[in-house]
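Before the break, one more example. Copy the sequence into your notebook; we will annotate it together after we see the structure.
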Amino acid sequence: SSSLSLLFSPDLLRFSIIFILFIVAFSISFFILLQNRPEFNNIFSALMKTTVMMIGEFEFTGIFHGEEDDKGKMHTPLMAYPLFLIFAVVMTILLMNLLVGLAVDDIKGVQEQAAIKRLSMQVDLVLQVECNIVGFIRRKVSRGSNCVYTDKKTCWQKFLENFGSKDVTQESSWEEGVTEKDGREIKLETQLNLQKMSLDELQTNVDAMYKKQLEIDEKLKQIFEVLKKEKEEDK
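Here is what the structure looks like once it is written out:
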């Protein structure tokens, strides 16, 4: 099924359409320019020969320097050499490399599917092994729950408490609390500083806008005074 999906993938079908168009175009061109050769004396032979040339069987000497049946059928021989060179570059380098790239792209998809399949097989294996394990071993190995005691003290802390070193443990716990508190205070302080900076910037922008508004008001007052004077002079 995977090979069939690769064979009929949309990318490969689109590439095949373009590939067939190139083969037909070059076949017609060779048929027009190289009719004096038996390989290209009709359109069907030209199509077959171009398809064979696509896989590397060019036969340059036989096509261009072999025995000629009729020189009159060789139309514009100077155009045949550039056409052959273009065919060699386009068909054997570009299109074949594109085909290889499509195959590699499809292989990546297959590898991803294989990785998912491998993980599912590993899960099935683990489940089968777990089902075959004896009951008491399964209960010892796998745990359904895990209890965490936050106030449970270590052996060293118990030792210090028993031998009168409670202050040390209290001091260590106090230091831990202080460090946590300091970290929180530092975070809060940085956030407050950032908010303060943003508020200061906003205040400066508001002050600048207020100054501009005052300047505009003064200019408008001056304009109104000039207009009043002009009206009074006209009267």
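Residues 2 and 8 are 10 Å apart (CA to CA). The chain has a mean pLDDT of 75. Try to locate both features in your own notes.
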